[in-house]
Amino acid sequence: MNERDELKRKFVNKVSGVLVVDKPIGMTSHDVVQFIRRGTHINRAGHTGTLDPRASGVLVVLVGPAVRLSEFVAASEKRYQAVIKFGMTTTTYDLEGEVTAVRPVDISFEELEEALKGFVGESEQVPPVFSALKINGKKAYELAREGKEVEMEPRTIVVHDLELLDWDPPEAVVDIHCSSGTYVRSLASDLGEKLGSGATLIGLRRTKNGQFGLRDAVSLRRLEEAFQNNDWYKFLIPAAEVLGDWYTIKLSFEQVDEVVHGHRIPGEEGLEDKMLARAISADGELIALMEYDAEKSEWQPRKVFGN
User: What is the distance between the alpha carbons of residues 20 and 215, in angstroms, rounded to a whole number?
Assistant: First the structure.
């Protein structure tokens, strides 16, 4: 290996952060990850929340050691703009499936707004049969396409807010702020059933994933240009900022060494037991994720990234 290749290898191994992509309609989330792997020459990459091919918007892709933050970023709240067509139902709750019913629509703006209020808060939601959730090791949509009967278990979701942005019958545009794991297709279907007309999701754009919004997102066209110019890292958000809304511990030089080797460090009293925090070095590098032990007033390393 020559000196240039060695420097490139060291750079690639050091890269750790997030690329926030504005995923276009027509691509799978996996397609986007593969595109980033090819462009960065970093195989260690993964997204933190699937967007269907028909959906667009914010897709957070973790690169390098930052992929270990996936479980925390994936659990972040989401925000969407959904276009819902009333008076039509399909097998998949969106335009991918076969039409199962067509009904008349006689719904006022006020009736729709009132119905939306009933979905705000914590509830049990049954995911769509045509989803990537696994049942006995096989994806639900694969079983459904084989004609097998699929029974989906309900899951607890939280809808923080639903705002009706536009109502041009039979189509509505709704802003949705919800917990991770919420299926907007199921929400649209349930809303249609509540109003007696049925409904299908015909458009979806994710506008926010955790702290990252469309303002943080880069198009694939711009990212491809950056790959060609070898300056793509200008779009890379450092790993320390991925959980920027978390409680932060600023480590001294001595504490960095202690945490890297798995040792606890003192914490202040009065914090919530088992709460999580990010620990960063003086130069802003993410060193570890820490968990608070209220009984001992200490921080225990939970995931260490090194220095």
Answer: 9
8 A C-beta contact, residue 80 and residue 188: no
Helix axes 220-229, 29-40, angle to 10 degrees: 10
Domain housing 106: 78-209
CA angle 293, 297, 303 (to 5 degrees): 45
- What are the CA-CA distances from residue 154 to residues 96, 182, 189, 247 (Å)? 22, 11, 15, 32
- Cβ atoms of 89 and 100 closer than 8 Å: yes
- Amino acid 229 reads N
Whether the predicted pLDDT of 4 surpasses 70: no
Residues 162 and 173 both lie in one domain = yes
Verify that 203 and 114 share a domain, yes or no: yes
User: Please, are residues 206 and 58 in contact by the beta-carbon 8 Å criterion?
Assistant: yes
Question: What are the backbone dihedrals phi and psi of residue 250, each rounded to the nearest 5 degrees, phi first?
Answer: -95, 115
Q: Is residue 58 part of a domain?
A: yes
User: pTM of this prediction?
Assistant: 0.87
Residues 41 and 113 in one domain: no
With a cut of 70, say whether residue 277 has pLDDT above it: yes
Band (131; pLDDT cuts 50, 70, 90): low
Structure tokens at 207: 């506008």
Residues assigned a catalytic role: 52
**What is residue 307's predicted lDDT score, i.e. its pLDDT?**
55
